[in-house]
Amino acid sequence: MQTMNDLPEEMDACLESQLEVIRGLTYERQPAVAEAARARFLKEAEKARQAYHQSTDSINVQTNPIAKWWSGLGVGLFPSLARAALAFGVALAVVIGGAAGVVFASQSSLPGDAMYPVKLWSDELRINLTADPAEQLDLEIQIAAERLQEMQQTQLLQNDRNQSQPSEEKTIPAAEQAYSGIYKHLDEALLLAQQLYADDPETLAQITTQIEQQLQLLEDMNPSAIIRELQELRKDLREQQKELKKAETEPTAENTSVPLATAAPATVESVEAEVTTEEDVSESEDNKDKDKDKDKETGKDKEKQNNNNSNNNSSNNSNNNSNNNSSNNSSNNSSNSSNDNKGGKKK
Amino acid sequence: MESPSEKDLLQGARAFDMETLAYIYDSYSPAIFRYAARMLDSTQLGEDCVSETFSRFLSALRQGKGPEDFLRAYLFRTAHNWITDYYRSKPHIIQTLEGDLTDKDHVPLPQDVERKLQGRAVMNALAQLTSDQRQVIALRFLEGWEIDEVARAMEKPPGAIKALQHRALARLRQLMQGEEEHADDE
Hints:
The complex is a heterodimer of chains A (about 350) and B (about 190). With about 350 residues, chain A is mainly alpha-helical. Helix content of chain A is about 75%, strand content about 0%. The two termini of chain A are about 40 Å apart. Residues about 1-5, about 60-65, about 165-170 and about 255-345 of chain A have low confidence and may be disordered. With about 190 residues, chain B is mostly helical. Chain B has 2 domains: about 1-90, Rna Polymerase Sigma Factor, Chain: A, CATH 1.10.1740; about 95-185, Winged helix-like DNA-binding domain superfamily/Winged helix DNA-binding domain (Arc Repressor Mutant, subunit A). Helix content of chain B is about 75%, strand content about 0%.
């Protein structure tokens, strides 16, 4: 076992001793089983080797068809350069010749759709093409919220489909893709915030706690609350940037950093209004879906039950969790939720 | 004797040099077994994970895929993906720790039983982390890897690993405290 010289400070003795217990657990391999597994691997490897040598002609290792073609054209001297040029040319042609259409068409796709990876890729590109770190941060948060919304939509679709055919095998890994996307973007948002507010530790701490709270919520699976919080965070950050820019143009202002807390209460009301309308829309969509399935009365009841269960679960979570400043997505509780939100902000 | 670099090993592996492939298996499978057996608390599943990891490695090589370098990080990533799939198909596997204790094929030593019961709380807490968090904890603190290698295994920037580690430890502590309070109640 290696020694760990760069232990983080939050790694206290208690936790360390607990992990030591697991480290002490030994799992003995049974020699016969291990030996059999090794033999199986070598057999499989041997098969792969034979297949490999059949396909590669065994005389000349350089039988890559592209390499042959290029050497025929007299560019064999710089094969990697030539291949790079070819790749670049093809990429350029693809980009110009209609990728824009593909990307556009992908924007409404959901996890599990054929176009979904294109959407992920174009979002990635959008972030990379943004020069201003503040805008990048905004995009990261926006995209994380989009991923969450997609996940919710897929779950709704899935509830519908489950009655007719089991499509879980396809949609679950896809939803997982969206899920890890949320993590990725929020993690990147954290990093960006660290760079952006390096000389303003107070604001940085506030942003960090907020994003981390959302990540915590994500673990407790309460998507609608997170989407709401993320939108709010974006508004706060934009206000912040506006103030900063104003301060830059007016050099007389002494204090350039505007604490996030002062900007927050002003936006809370409007965000809440936005949120309730969003919820109304999604609810009416729900109803539409249910109308469609009128002929499947029994299935509908089941689905209702499921929905109730999941609502209960999420509300339990928010009650148990001390730093959870959100509510579940039923609109009956929206008045409670506003109180919760304000309570959370003050911390 | 100095051990060959991961890059050299992978070059040999891509040419399906049997000696290299056997060397790779012998050098990396024990660690993968230990990692998987711990994570799934079962020697049987540990063996399954080793087989599947190396089988996936071979088929990646056959398709001309697989890594150019950092073989260990790649193999652990593959193993971890398998473990995650397993967790997902059987969500509460870790909670039934007794399963392994009453294993017909192997009779555990008494001190092993005690240690396992001690470890139970920790394993339960670990099982409640997200897959990424669990992986960071396992690689950093059980396998003793550096941040950079964990970052390669998980294909994330080192900063993200630090953030994940921070959250994982905070959550773990929270869970362990909950566990203690729970025990006090009883």
